[in-house]
Design goal:
two-stranded antiparallel ribbon; alpha/beta; binds 2'-O-acetyl adenosine-5-diphosphoribose; 6-stranded parallel β-sheet
Length: 249
């Protein structure tokens, strides 16, 4: 048995996790930060630092400048193909095997939870790896090689777009319903790596607490949720989550 320094997580939080029968986890961009992917409210890196995501991820921006929006997402897709799941993603995939029931809800569109082995992930904001027709919203797996961007739908010639939720757009109703159903019946809700600013995702922790669940926040900095949470752990998800898993060993 290796000699591990005793973990430092609050005992009542660890007990709530060890005895949880229905666990819900909500993740945000902070969980993918240690995979090298920029978060939304951290300054954008490199070429795109002069653009605000909230100005690019909108239907209006796509109509006004479809090529710019398409290329911004192509840049983000490239970052994601170069990224791998980090210890936070891996710990959540392991946790799903260690507890009776874990529903993972993510705001992230990078697919890294699935790559790490998490199953039945609820993607509230879609997935950048999927492309859809901007008119029919059907998934398009392939299109003719083209020099024009965005490429056009092979069926109706409308521009193609990433299958992600833009500001001002409604979230996929199936994902929202599944997220709310799981949240309303959980006994412990973990909010991890999210600024808790964007609704309806930011409402879930309050729904859980209103229905009697304990709420824990694991985040690098305080958020509007912090003062409401039953447990607030400040730190890196890639450090806190593997430490949490150690309690199951
Ligand atoms: P944000 O960038 O708003 O927040 C990320 C949070 O993660 C911040 O509070 C950071 O302090 C924290 N953080 C950063 N690195 C961390 C680490 N290694 N470990 C733990 N926490 C860390 O991203 P989200 O909250 O995910 O929506 O943003 C929510 C939504 O706003 C996104 O899904 C996107 C954005 O607009 C759409 O695109 C529709």
């Amino acid at each position: 048995m290796t000699d591990r320094s005793p973990p430092t997580l609050p005992r009542d939080f660890v007990d709530a996790l060890l005895y949880s029968k229905r666990l819900v986890v909500l993740t945000g961009a902070g969980v993918s930060a240690e995979s090298g992917l920029p978060t939304f409210r951290q300054a954008q890196i490199g070429l795109w630092s002069r653009y605000d995501p909230q100005e690019l991820a909108t239907p209006q921006a796509f109509v006004a400048n479809p090529r710019l929006v398409w290329e911004w997402y192509a840049w983000r897709r490239q970052l994601i193909t170069e990224a791998s799941p980090n210890p936070a993603h891996q710990a959540l995939a392991d946790l799903q095997q260690l507890v009776p029931a874990l529903t993972l809800i993510t705001q992230n569109v990078d697919g890294l939870h699935q790559q790490a082995g998490s199953s039945d992930v609820i993607e509230l904001h879609g997935n950048i790896g999927r492309t859809i027709c901007s008119r029919e919203r059907t998934v398009v797996d392939a299109w003719p090689v083209t020099e024009e961007f965005p490429p056009l739908c092979p069926d109706c010639q409308a521009p193609l777009r990433p299958d992600v939720v833009w500001f001002g757009e409604s979230l996929p109703s199936g994902a929202v319903n599944a997220a709310v159903d799981a949240t309303a019946t959980c006994d412990l809700f973990l909010s991890i790596g999210t600024s808790a600013l964007i609704h309806p995702a930011a409402d879930l922790a309050h729904i859980a607490q209103h229905r009697g669940a304990l709420v824990a926040e694991l985040n690098a900095e305080p958020t509007p949720l912090t003062r409401h949470a039953d447990f607030a752990l400040q730190g890196q998800a890639g450090v806190l989550l593997p430490e949490l898993i150690d309690y199951f060993r």
